[in-house]
Input
Amino acid sequence: MGQHQDVYFVPSKSQWPIVAAVVLFLTVFGAGHWLNAEPGESGFGKTFLLIGFVGVLAMFFGWFRAVIRESLAGRYNAQVDRSFRMGMMWFIFSEVMFFGAFFGALFYARLYAVPWLGGEGHGVLTHQFLWNDYAAAWGANGGNGPARIGGSFETVPPWGMPLLNTLILLTSSVTVTIAHHAIKDGHRGRVLLFLGLTVLLGASFLYFQANEYMEAYRELNLTLKSGVYGSTFFMLTGFHGMHVTLGTIMLAVMWLRELKGHFTRDHHFAFEAVAWYWHFVDVVWLGLFIFVYIL
Amino acid sequence: MTTGGIRIKAWAATACALLCGVAWANPKPGQLNMPRGVTEWSERPYLLNNVALGVCVVIGVLVFGAMAIAMVRFRKSRGAVAEKWTHNTTLEIVWTTIPVLILVVLAYLATGGLTTFADTTGSQMTVKVTGYQWKWRYDYVEYRGKAIDKVGFMSRLDAQSDETRQLGSGLDPHAVQVDGENTYLLNVDEPLVVPVGVKIRFVITAGDVIHSWWVPDLGWKIDAIPGIVNAAWATIKTPGVYRGQCAELCGQDHGFMPVVVKAVTRSEFEQWLAQRQARAAPAPAATAPAPAKQG
Amino acid sequence: MAHAATHDQHDDHHHGAPKGFFARWVMSTNHKDIGTLYLVLSLIAFFIGGSFAMVIRAELFKPGLQLVQPYFFNEMTTLHALVMIFGAVMPAFVGLGNWMIPLMIGAPDMALPRMNNLSFWLLPFAFVLLLSTLFLPGGGPAGGWTLYPPLSLQGQSLAYSVFAIHLMGISSIMGAINIIATILNLRAPGMDLLKMPVFVWTWLITAFLLIAVMPVLAGAVTMLLTDKYFGTSFFNAAGGGDPVLYQHIFWFFGHPEVYIMILPAFGLISEIIPTFARKPIFGYKAMVFAVASIAFLSFIVWAHHMFAVGLPLGADIFFMYATMLIAVPTGVKVFNWVSTMWGGSMSFETPMLWAVAFVILFTIGGFSGLMLALVPADFQYHDSYFVVAHFHYVLVTGAIFAIIAGVYYWLPKWTGRMYSEFWGKVHFWNSVVWVNVLFFPQHFLGLAGMPRRIPDYNVAFANFNMVSSIGGFLFGASQLIFLGVIVHCVFFSRKQALDRVWEGARGLEWTVPSPAPHHTFEVPPLIHDEDLAHGHAVD
Ligand code: HEA
Ligand code: HEA
Ligand code: CUA
Ligand SMILES: [Cu+2]
Output
């Protein structure tokens, strides 16, 4: 691994990092203010949040435009490419750990917290002294805890929309891989077709997911507030949904860049990074499908 | 000769008291070590503490001694010339193995204590302890197989400490005394009364945030967690008043919710209990405030 | 074979720093400038966090409340810890890593220089956000740095604290990614992994820890946020959750976090002791392996912070054993440092003094850690001042001492001038004496039964608290000497530093001029094993 390369690349100074820091600060400052505001006073925080958010989008646009230009100008050598790859890989690993925290919460709640409240094993006294009318169960029969927080609810059956969405995401993983091979083979038409299909699949996933949420809220009374069941359900699927949204946007950008002819057979790291990300989102979904919906 | 002997004895007694804490039940100025405690179990942490401390001191003397010798002998200013060697496998194996052996011994000692501690069976009395911001509630649940009804009360910081502890009160903490012993912040309006020689089971929970019930002389602390019940036990050997404090940050007055346990003989206790039950019978006793809603 | 590094803008070609304050410091892509920024931020944070500690020690000077209200005291405790951990120690290590890792492995810069700049600039904003809560009507966070619910949910400023932690987390993750990419991708040809300086190794492993656990912290505080503002029930037993769940998630982050604050310190000490012992580090491979084992074990010991929450017996036992195991690889490190000194030719310039003090005092902190690991004993120690004594020994005389040692060690390389050896030693002796006066008595307080996080106490605890406070004030004041030494060295010192500042120093960083020019190793250096700290180690 002691690499042999003879040219180091050091990028020029840039205003984007400080812009990024400022807009991120505005975003969270606005959000914090909004959350803390008394009813009717939230305008100030909302405004900041909005400015910050738009700023973040603009920053990403500007920063990536600069990077794309450098890339197109051929300034990045193989070593830079490797650094980018490592960066993306470790970023995805950090995302895995982020989801890990929420999966951990899910497993803990199901395997320990809820059974203990119901009096199993370590929870005998807890049950006896505090919650002796609580019969623990996951899902609709107790997933919202002894106080039945949020009222009774029903769960989303896995074999309807979730199954459909699973198939959609799995298919999209295939299409994005086909598009990748097409790039390597230099088939632009095929790239645009399959990449476009991937974007559409991502968007339809989101559409169905949004429907599912509305149905959960309206018909099943399953909400974020439905005890720990609702909490884990919506936080896990919600963060996943946000990642799909981001992934879809990035795929769409890749489609546009392909349209502009940015990618060559052996120079298309941006595309690959997005594809990795997409696979990661896909794998997380499989975890969700199994542990949140089926089991 | 005699005076000298007495002086030495007095000195030895003080030293013993400072180091072992046996002579006094409550923290004393200059106390250096953990109290030995007054329960069947409290000797275990005390002994474990001393053994572990001893082991560390011995290892410390060896390691720091070797360092000191090195620093004296191998100084450049004394003309020391650096050796060239960089490792020694035998030595490295030795100093990996020896610590392992020491740890095995310590682990053995610690594990024995734990299994005893975890065993709350065979108790003859149950007291329910509930932490609130910023007071404790004690409910007598059961004594020698008989359920107890409506004996329960709040226990909070005594008035004198409370007055003295106000910012800029101008009152002297040294003046807060009971029977010549300083009780500043360690006294309550109404202590928990328990019998000696009886295995008492404490079931511990909280009404708002997490607290922790700690009396050093009982040899343990355990968290009082809202919605969860923890259990621990104690068999107190000697009558006396044992003082402790809340040991989990629970808000602004965390420092001001002491725990006082008054251990009396069994007959005294039974008398006290009978009195309390009689008092409780006519008028319904005040019930605990409803646990504050979380979130 | 070697070409010059490419820069894509003209002004960067001329080997000097860009002109213009804003362009140089705010838009930087230079690892040395960004390293400097980190170090300056860290120093400022150390003083802010230290001032909070002074408030704590002043209130605890004698029994009775004299200065602050209890709530404010709790804010001070909470922010003291958050500022010291996320503002002083971590940025200091990132700063040292930024400055030195490229120099030590023969790289021209960090692998992702712009992201590097962003990692830094998030921090000042995060701290403004965090500290501004002190001035809000509801007050700042006061639930301890561990932010345990449900107490932390009562705080009015929870949202700001959570977002500040998110920003710091993003910063740390990006910083860690950068360090990994730099070490794995930018080493000069011939700088094999097992020839890297130990400091680089420790940072590589630390970076893995950071990427693995910072997102978990982000998840934990996000759940706090939704529990407070959006009605979720993660930590609410009535809704099927459990307050203890938070503690599990937090400490899954928190324990590796404390090793994040000590592993780079181990690295620093492993550079400094061989230099001043004029003898290669003893057992290089064992040292690297020990760090890796500590990092691995750090993931399976978290619940030793929770022995008093009422875990099932089996969990108590498992976590106790796993925790105790860490003493073994840590012992290997300590023994190897001593063996490096043994048979050396030692001199005791300021960095070496700090390093020696580190070895002794950190070990004392490790010993109390081992005592804490014994569950039955921890039922007594937990949440008492014994714990406070433990972690200040490992953090202050551990992490902070190592950082100070590192700063003295490399300051001449950074500035090109020598600091005042005399004042450095005055700083050292004052610090080492007062820090023990400050923290040693806290062991006794804890054993005698004084809980932590209380603003006032019984008179039985008065004597040792007063001693501790006096030690605290004097230790704090001693740090003003540090400031003086740095300012003098940077702006006033006349004494030129050699390129190889210390006679026994080995490693690539000593082959470049002092001060290190704005750009170094634009051409990958040819590695001669004798130049390396470990390249010539025979084993
Ligand atoms: C840099 C930070 C750092 C480091 C390195 C450590 C190192 C260790 N810590 Fe510490 N710890 C903290 C920071 C750190 N800790 C903090 C901040 C807290 C409190 C958090 C809070 O609640 O706010 C804490 C709390 C804490 C607790 C919880 C206490 C409680 O709240 O009840 C425990 C319990 O097991 C513990 C154990 C240990 C152990 C076993 C080590 C080991 O790694 C130590 C190993 C080292 C040695 C043992 C010495 C050298 C070895 C030898 C010379 C070999 C031979 C020795 C023997 C065989 C004994 N620590
Ligand atoms: C790296 C981390 C770190 C560092 C460096 C320190 C440094 C210090 N800490 Fe630490 N501390 C923690 C991490 C750290 N601490 C943590 C994690 C907690 C737990 C919090 C919790 O419970 O949630 C804690 C809690 C804590 C407590 C317990 C509070 C409580 O339980 O209520 C105390 C009390 O003495 C204390 C004291 C000090 C002191 C005196 C220093 C000194 O070393 C500081 C010295 C530095 C300076 C003083 C600044 C420089 C000088 C000046 C500003 C000049 C002006 C000063 C004078 C002229 C006097 N700290
Ligand atoms: Cu109750 Cu602290
Ligand atoms: Cu730990």
The first helix of chain B runs from residue 2 to 20. Chain B has two domains: 27-117, 125-279. Residues 1-24, 288-295 of chain B have pLDDT under 50 and may be disordered.
